[in-house]
Every structure is written in structure tokens, then in C-alpha cells.
Design a protein that fits this description.
This protein is an alpha/beta fold and about 575 residues long. It contains 24 helices and 17 strands. The strands form four sheets. Strands 11-12-13-14-15-16-17 form a seven-stranded parallel β-sheet, with helices on one face. Strand 14, helix 20 and strand 15 form a beta-alpha-beta unit.
Length: about 575
């Protein structure tokens, strides 16, 4: 989904919620909620729809919604949303993130108890102020308090795909400013962390004031937090803060390096510089000088020059976490990290046979258009009834359709796979005879995630020992900012996977990014191999693969560690083995 479209969907959903909190009629609230769903389902961008008349006559897009979309396309704002945000306390939206509390309950809390923030809600719950309030029984309050604690733990963090899309829009806007020079993304987003707190950008410019003005007045800015000559800070409509620094040309490489981080990496790098009689900071690399004298500036046209001056090979941003990368750079032992353009095939995707949005041939065409050589469809198995899991007759129909599609496709291959649920005791869906006929079986946990650590470990390891299983899907079950990994002895799981030649998935979906990059590196050291899979249910979700590659890079993986970086013929040979 494009950033303009993504932001518009978020704005319409926000409108619907605020309208309900403000007491607007239910029909209007539902219209905006439905409008957000319609916008999300449309291909293209808002400006294109308006230019081509795409929205004319679309059921569910009335005059009010059309006006809101026009306002958004013109300015990145919706007037009614601005007015609602002036009336409704911002803390009410924080409460919305607490499980089990929807707009109706929030309105009740606000109107009857004056509760307008998470802090006030927690205080009221612990003081027993909600005991006589309809819908707030003891279990509800207990669950609510746990949700507040979870929300506090995840506060002010944003998923990588949301932050990346916002950053790309800022970069595109600033690159059009006359006089802009070098401009790069920095911070944890450049290091490809799974979640980020804010967006950092570093630039040079012939006219810094013009760049700063363009930054603070760009569409989609909710609030200007600070506006200076060399640094400005904004809060985007989606809730993500962004900072821009404009520096001198000879400071750029050092500033980019410093503001990329991470903290431990920077500390170690500065310490190394001191031991070499140098001083490294955000302004440059200098020779040490007596007293407070500045010292001679050493030319560093780019980051590679900084590392070279310090006797190190260039360290890619993803590795700058203080995890031994400096020692590896000194010894010449840094890995040749994987890149997104090395991915040759797409594994673990869903079609309309289960809960996907594309048919077999549509999905294959989308993959081929993106330059991939093969696709393995892995719809849900029959136990996942909630996701349209495939019964045996549906599997046979899908196999026939795949055979027919392969007969039409030249130079591209579709493989027959399944994402089989790992059942309670470690069994798999379907009998062994049917499982053996799939080209690829991904085994995943989708239920009973609260089993104790010993039972969960036994369950997964038993599934890994099944001869049909080739990949362990989203190995720890985490949902970023929503659900912690389930309790499992991950080291035992890794050892079992290696012993049975089962790959560990790096699930590229931004809500998962599972396996965690720290565990990826640990698993690689024990001989594990991996598959970077999008777990795509929609066309645009094929674009998640680079996020998975980012995790692979953070886990120090090279091309030979990732199975779907094999070309088609070699991948076929691997499947046969």
C-alpha cells in the first residue's frame, strides 16, 4: 500500500472513531469506517482516483467522504478530522489500544467518570471506581489493567513498514526542494530495527532555511515540535515523530554515522578513535589536539572513509548494534550480507483458496512481474477453519489449477505447498500420504499458544521430526507491539531443526519479522538455514520481502544461508532432496 493511501485509510478510521466519541450519528460513523475499507481495497493512489474519476459511482463513497478524500489529496489533512481532534482529548485514542475497550466504552468512561487518559483509567480501575459501571466486571477490569501495562511497554514504537513509508514520503518531498544536497535516512530505521521510535534524517543544503521550511510545512504534518536553523522536529499525522538535521558538507559523513547509531556501536567506535589519537564525533574525525584546541579535521567524504581511517572494513548499518561487528571488521571477517535482489523465489503465500485475496494465476503473475522465478503457494490447512483452511477436495482442485497455470507460464514455476498447523501434541494436519505429495510443507503454530514452555517445545520438536516438514513457519509466534513470543526452548528447537534439515522461516510480514534477528545469528552459528517468506495474503504484501531481508542482514546471513536465493533449477533439486 502506498504511503498516501495508507495515511488516508488511517485518517478515515480515526475520523470514524472520533465521530463516535463525539456523539455523531451512528450512520455517519459507519460511513467513514466503511469508506476506510473501500479505500484500502482500491488499487492506486488518491490523486490518481480523483484525476481519473475512479471514485465516481463507487458504492459507499458519498459526497462527504469524497470531499474528505479531495481535502486529503490536496493538503494531507481532513478539515473535519482537525476539528474533531480539537474537541476530543488525545488520551482517549490511547485507551482505544487497550484490549476489550471500544469507542462505546471509552465514551461511557469519559462522560460518566471523566476518564481521558490511560493513567486516569488505571487509577480509576485500581481504586474501584469502575465497579458499578455496566460492562466493567472484575475479569474485564483485570484484562484491562494487563492491557494498559502492555500498552505502556510498547508506547511510542512504530512498525518498520509504517515508518519506512512515512520516511520515503519525506525523502521524496525534500529531494524536490531547490538547493538540497545530500539527504539520507539515519537512526534505527536505517539499521532496520523491527520497531522504531522516530525518523531521523541528515542533509546538506545550499539554503538550509528553505529545506527546513519545506520540512515543517509538508503535507501530513500534525504538529511542528521544533523549527530551527539546523534542526527541526515534526509529528506526522500517523503519530510518528521525525527529526531533520542540515549540516555542512564536510560534516555530513560523520553526522550520518553518528545519528545512525546504535549507541553501543558509536561508543566502541569513538573509543577506538581515542586509542588511535583521534577524536570522532557528529562533526567529523579529528586528530587529537592539546587543551581545547579543535585539532586537524581529517577528510571523510563518506562513511567508508571513517571506517578506513580507523583501520576497519566498512560496516553495513544493519550490523551496527555493538554485537562484535567492529572486531569482525578489524579481522576481515564481516559477512557478505544478503540483498533483496538476490531473492529468486517467493515461498509461503496465500490465495483465495484460504484467506488470500488473489487467485493462483493472479498471484503467480504478480510474482513474475516483480522478477521472481518461482512461487510456492502455502494456503492454510484444514484445522485453520477460521482462515478457510483447505479440505482434501480443495487441495485437489488447487493442484489441478496449479498444473494448468504451470502449463501457461513460460520460465516461471508454481509449487504445491501447504502451511500445515502443528496440532496440540505436535501432529500435523492431513495423513502422511497426502503430506508427502506436497512439494513443500511449512509447519506453523496458530493455536494453543499459552502452553507451558516444556509442552510447547515438545510439540514443535515433534513436528520438526516429521519427514514431510521442510520449513518451520514464524517460529516464535510473536506479533510486534501486540503479542510476545510464546514460551519455548528456542535453542532446542534450533538444534532439532538442524538435525532434521528443516529450515527456519524469517517471516517478512512487518507485524511478525519472526525469527528475531538475534536468534537468526545464533541459529546460523549452529548450522541452521533459512527461508525469507512474505506470508503474503494480498498483492502489495509481496513487497514485504525486503523487510525480511533486513532481518536476515541483521542476523549476519549470506546468500548461501537462504534457500529461496537459489535459482529455480537448484531450488527444484533441493526440494527433491
Amino acid at each position: 500500500m502506498t504511503q498516501d493511501k495508507q495515511d488516508l485509510v488511517a485518517a478515515l478510521k480515526r475520523c470514524a472513531i472520533l465521530m463516535e466519541l463525539a456523539g455523531e450519528n451512528a450512520f455517519k460513523c459507519r460511513a467513514y469506517e466503511q469508506g476506510a475499507r473501500i479505500v484500502e481495497s482500491l488499487e492506486g493512489e488518491p490523486r490518481q482516483w480523483l484525476e481519473t474519476g475512479r471514485l465516481n459511482g463507487v458504492k459507499g463513497i458519498g459526497k462527504g467522504l469524497l470531499k474528505a478524500i479531495e481535502e486529503w489529496a490536496a493538503s494531507g489533512r481532513i478539515c473535519e478530522l482537525d476539528e474533531l481532534q480539537e474537541k476530543i482529548p488525545p488520551g482517549l485514542l490511547d485507551i482505544l489500544h487497550v484490549p476489550g475497550i471500544g469507542p462505546k466504552k471509552i465514551k461511557l468512561l469519559w462522560e460518566t467518570r471523566g476518564i481521558d487518559s490511560l493513567e486516569r483509567l488505571e487509577q480509576a480501575a485500581r481504586a474501584g471506581e469502575l465497579n458499578d459501571l455496566a460492562g466493567f466486571g472484575a475479569k474485564t477490569v483485570e484484562k484491562m489493567l494487563a492491557g494498559i501495562e502492555q500498552r505502556r511497554q510498547y508506547a511510542e514504537r512504530h512498525l518498520i513498514h509504517t515508518a519506512t513509508a512515512a520516511a520515503e514520503r519525506i525523502l521524496g518531498h525534500l529531494r524536490a526542494v531547490p538547493g538540497i544536497g545530500r539527504l539520507e535516512l539515519a537512526g534505527s530505521l536505517r539499521r532496520r530495527r523491527e520497531t522504531i521510535k522516530d525518523i531521523d534524517l541528515v542533509a546538506t543544503a545550499a539554503d538550509p532555511a528553505a529545506v527546513m521550511q519545506a520540512f515543517v510545512t509538508m503535507p501530513g504534518v500534525l504538529r511542528v515540535v521544533g523549527h530551527g536553523a539546523t534542526k527541526s522536529s515534526i509529528l506526522l499525522a500517523g503519530g510518528i515523530p521525525a527529526d531533520l538535521r542540515v549540516v555542512a558538507e564536510d560534516e555530513f559523513a560523520a553526522a550520518l554515522n553518528y545519528f545512525t547509531g546504535g549507541k553501543e556501536h558509536n561508543t566502541a567506535l569513538r573509543g577506538r578513535a581515542r586509542r588511535m589519537g583521534l577524536k570522532l564525533n557528529e562533526y567529523g574525525l579529528f586528530r587529537e589536539a592539546p587543551g581545547d584546541e579543535p585539532g586537524e579535521r581529517l577528510p571523510t567524504p563518506d562513511e567508508a572513509a571513517i571506517y578506513q581511517r580507523l583501520g576497519l572494513a566498512y560496516i553495513e548499518p544493519e550490523l551496527r548494534e555493538g554485537e562484535g561487528e567492529i572486531e569482525a571488521a578489524e579481522a576481515g571477517e564481516l559477512p557478505r550480507l544478503v540483498t533483496a535482489d538476490q531473492v529468486r523465489g517467493v515461498l509461503h503465500c496465500h490465495t483465495t483458496y484460504s484467506d488470500g485475496r488473489l487467485g493462483v494465476l493472479e498471484l503467480a503473475a504478480a510474482c513474475r512481474d516483480l522478477g521472481y522465478e518461482y512461487l510456492c503457494i502455502c494456503d492454510h490447512s484444514q484445522s485453520a477453519a477460521y482462515a478457510g483452511g483447505l479440505r482434501v477436495d480443495a487441495i485437489r482442485r488447487q493442484w489441478d489449477e496449479i498444473d494448468a497455470a504451470n502449463a501457461q507460464l513460460d520460465g516461471f514455476r508454481i509449487f504445491k505447498g501447504i502451511e500445515s498447523d502443528i496440532l496440540a501434541e505436535g501432529e500435523l494436519d492431513y495423513d502422511d500420504g497426502l503430506l508427502a505429495r506436497f512439494d513443500l510443507v511449512v509447519a506453523s503454530i496458530h493455536s494453543r499458544m499459552t502452553l507451558d514452555r516444556e509442552a510447547m517445545t515438545r510439540r514443535i520438536c515433534r513436528a520438526l521430526a516429521h519427514p514431510a516438514v521442510r520449513i518451520l513457519g514464524h517460529p516464535t509466534g510473536r506479533l510486534l507491539l501486540r503479542r510476545e513470543p510464546y514460551g519455548v526452548d528456542i535453542d532446542q528447537v534450533i538444534e532439532t531443526a538442524v538435525r532434521h534439515n528443516v529450515l527456519l522461516e524469517i517471516n517478512a510480514h512487518p507485524h511478525r519479522l519472526d525469527l528475531d534477528w538475534r536468534l537468526v545469528r545464533r541459529a546460523k552459528a549452529r548450522g541452521a538455514r533459512f527461508a525469507v517468506n512474505p506470508d503474503a495474503h494480498r498483492r502489495e504484501e509481496l513487497g514485504y520481502i525486503p523487510y525480511g531481508v533486513g532481518i536476515a542482514r541483521k542476523g549476519w546471513l549470506e546468500a548461501e544461508d537462504v534457500i529461496n536465493m537459489l535459482p529455480l533449477k537448484q531450488f527444484e533439486q533441493w526440494l527433491k532432496r
